[in-house]
Design goal:
The structure holds 2 protein chains of 2 kinds. Chain A is mainly beta. Helices cover 0% and strands 52% of the residues of chain A. In chain A, strands 2, 5, 6, 10, 11 and 12 form a 6-stranded mixed sheet that branches. A 4-stranded antiparallel sheet of chain A has the order 3-9-8-7, with no helix packed on it. The radius of gyration of chain A is 14 Å and the shape is globular. Chain B is mostly beta strands. In chain B, strands 2, 4, 5, 6, 9, 10 and 11 form a 7-stranded mixed sheet that branches. In chain B, strands 1-3-8-7 form a 4-stranded antiparallel sheet, with no helix packed on it. Classes of the chains: A mainly beta, B mainly beta. Chains A and B meet through strand 5 and strand 6 of A and strand 4, strand 5, strand 9 and strand 10 of B.
Chain lengths: 115, 113
């Protein structure tokens, strides 16, 4: 079975500052990794994903995450945040094979960007 | 764009009532999922379905059942609602060809009094 740990439940940050949201996973088999974002009163949207290839993946709005197999991590970073990035962020993992497309989610990190 | 719709954004029910939450997707996806979301617990999988009339239990199926009579529609049923089922319920769908990406509906906030 897989598990995901998001160590920080809340991360306050000032606008234009850098931010890192941490995600560690546990799995006995190879996995795919995802970051989803949930804006207030909305469902989840895919932010970025790692399936294979380059370990650094980027989103269209400036976020990036790096898959680190040795540290079993998939931390999310942004060099300069905006007020509009205020949201809850969920890390998720699924098995490469045999997982049936099921995702295991972390408990979420609430990013609050302040002026 | 993929669209996943849920029948209600907000719902208030009484203890003991039978509750139906409906989810419809318009992209011919094979897989559909029901999650509940609670503060500090993240998303927990209740049930999922690989195909019409196929269903499998997720991590927290107790107190819930599901129905998938048509490919585009996946219903979550609370046979006898209880106050501990007050939560946000999220439906999602995915294609077996889309690299495991799931598309989510806006959610239904259910309050059981």
């Amino acid at each position: 079975a897989q598990s995901v740990t998001q160590l920080d439940s809340q991360v306050p940050v000032f606008e234009e500052a850098p931010v890192e949201l941490r995600c560690n996973y546990s799995s006995s088999v190879s996995v795919y990794l995802f970051w989803y974002v949930q804006y207030p009163n909305q469902g989840l949207q895919l932010l970025l994903k790692y399936l294979s290839g380059s370990t650094l993946v980027e989103s269209i709005n400036g976020f990036e995450a790096e898959f680190n197999k040795s540290q079993t991590s998939f931390h999310l970073r942004k060099p300069s945040v905006h007020i509009s990035d205020t949201a809850e962020y969920f890390c998720a993992v699924t098995r490469l094979t045999g997982g049936g497309n099921k995702l295991t989610f972390g408990t979420g990190t609430q990013l609050k960007v302040e002026l | 764009d993929v669209k996943v719709t849920q029948s209600s954004r907000y719902l208030v029910k009484r203890t003991g009532e039978k509750v139906f939450l409906e989810c419809v997707q318009d992209m011919d996806h094979e897989n559909m999922f029901w999650y509940r979301q609670d503060p500090g617990l993240g998303l927990r999988l209740i049930y999922f379905s690989y195909d019409v009339k196929m269903k499998e239990k997720g991590d927290i199926p107790e107190g819930y059942s599901v129905s998938r009579e048509k490919k585009e529609r996946f219903s979550l049923i609370l046979e006898s609602a209880s106050t501990n089922q007050t939560s946000m319920y999220l439906c999602a769908s995915s294609s077996i060809y889309s690299g495991h990406e799931q598309y989510f509906g806006p959610g239904t906030r259910l309050t059981v009094t």
